[in-house]
Write a structure and sequence with these properties.
The protein is of the alpha+beta class. The protein has a single domain, classed as Alpha-Beta Plaits, CATH 3.30.70.1290. It has a five-stranded antiparallel β-sheet with strand order 4-1-3-2-5. α1 packs antiparallel against α4 and α5 crosses α10. The longest helix has 30 residues. The relative contact order is 0.17.
Length: 219
C-alpha cells in the first residue's frame, strides 16, 4: 500500500526512473510518444490504442475538456532515464489512474518497439505531497530546469524536454501546463526566470556540497 493519500485540488511531485537507471527514451520519437501519452491518457475512462487513434480524424485530446481530465500538469521534465511531474489531482483517484495508464501504455509501446520484456520503470512511481507555496515555487524551478540540475551532456539533452519554455516565452505560445498557480506570483516571465535561475544556483550548490561531503566521508 502507498503511504500517501491523493486529494483533489492538492499538488504532488511525481517522479520515477528507468529500472536500473536504464534509458526510457532511446530515440527522439520515444520522447515525443511519451509526451503524447501524457496528453491522451489524461482522461477518465479507457481510450484504447494511441497508435490506432492516430489514424482517426478527431484525436481524443482535442475534445477533452478540463472536467474530463484526471490531473492538471503545472510543470514537467522528461530526461533520458527519468521524469518529474508537478501535478494537481482533479478527479477522485485521478493520479493513480493516470499514472497507471501512462506507465503501462508506454512500457507496452517501448517493449514492443525494442523487443523487450518486463518492467521499464523502477517499481511504482514516487509521490510527495507539496504542502507549502514555497515548496511549490522552488519545485517548479527544479523541474523546469532539471537538465541543468543534473548537468546533462549535449547527447542526453537531445532526449530531454521540459515546460521551461512555457514559463519564459510570451503567453499563449504553449498551453500544455496550467501555469497560473506559479506565474501569477510574478510580475512577468522575466521575474519568474530570475527566481528559477537563482533557485537553481542554490540547488546546485547544495548538491555539490553533498557530493563533497560524501567523498570526504568515504575517504
Amino acid at each position: 500500500m502507498r503511504d500517501i493519500k491523493f486529494t483533489n485540488g492538492e499538488f504532488y511531485h511525481i517522479y520515477n526512473r528507468g529500472n536500473n537507471k536504464r534509458p526510457i527514451f532511446q530515440h527522439f520519437f520515444d520522447l515525443q510518444r511519451f509526451f503524447q501519452s501524457m496528453d491522451e491518457f489524461n482522461v477518465q475512462g479507457p481510450i484504447g490504442s494511441i497508435y490506432v487513434n492516430s489514424f482517426k480524424k478527431d484525436l481524443l485530446s482535442s475534445s477533452t475538456t478540463k472536467s474530463e481530465r484526471l490531473v492538471d500538469f503545472v510543470c514537467y521534465c522528461l530526461n533520458h532515464n527519468h521524469y518529474h511531474f508537478l501535478i494537481k489531482q482533479l478527479a477522485d483517484g485521478g493520479i493513480t489512474e493516470f499514472m497507471h495508464k501512462l506507465g503501462s501504455g508506454y512500457t507496452r509501446y517501448f517493449n514492443e518497439k525494442y523487443k523487450l520484456n518486463g518492467g521499464l520503470f523502477q517499481g511504482r512511481f514516487k509521490a510527495i505531497h507539496v504542502d507549502s507555496n514555497d515548496y511549490l515555487l522552488h519545485l517548479s524551478a527544479y523541474i523546469n530546469l532539471n537538465n541543468k540540475v543534473h548537468k546533462l551532456s549535449s547527447s542526453t539533452t537531445k532526449l530531454s524536454k521540459s515546460s521551461w519554455d512555457e514559463y519564459v516565452r510570451p503567453a499563449g505560445s504553449n498551453n500544455f501546463c496550467e501555469k497560473d498557480i506559479i506565474s501569477s506570483q510574478f510580475k512577468n516571465a522575466s521575474g519568474y526566470r530570475k527566481f528559477a535561475e537563482d533557485s537553481l544556483r542554490t540547488i546546485k550548490d547544495k548538491k555539490d556540497l553533498e557530493k563533497s561531503l560524501n567523498l570526504l566521508l568515504s575517504g
